[in-house]
Structures are given as C-alpha cells and as structure tokens.
# Entry
Amino acid sequence: MVAGREGGLLSDEGVRGLGAVIAGRAPGRADDAELTFFKSVGNAVQDIAVAQVALAEAERLGLGVEVAL
# Structure
C-alpha cells in the first residue's frame, strides 16, 4: 500500500478498514469497475475468517473453480 500511495495510485480517502465496511460504517465498492485490495497484517485467524466468508459467497453465486491440491 505504501508503494501505491507513493506512486499516486492510492489515496488515503480511498482506504477503508475491512471491519468498518463489514459493519456498514464505511462504504464498499460503488460499482464493479472499482477494485478491492485487502492487506492482511499477519493474523491467521482473520485470514481464515475472511476466506470462509469469501468461499461461502462464491459458492452461493456459483463462482470459482475447485482445485485439487
């Protein structure tokens, strides 16, 4: 995110905390052309929680491809 700010690609007013968006205190994307960038700071429990929500939504919408590892 630092490089994006320094390069003029990201401004502070466009940055919102994930918790604030989920709680409805900050807006998410206004349309499909906007990008979402999630920067995790290393808390594995939060990473798993976000992944579970993303997976459930993708399954609900019939999106994604299952990959065998």
Q: What stands out?
A: The CA atoms of residues 1 and 15 lie 10 Å apart. The radius of gyration is 14 Å. The mean pLDDT is 87. Residues 2-61 form one domain.
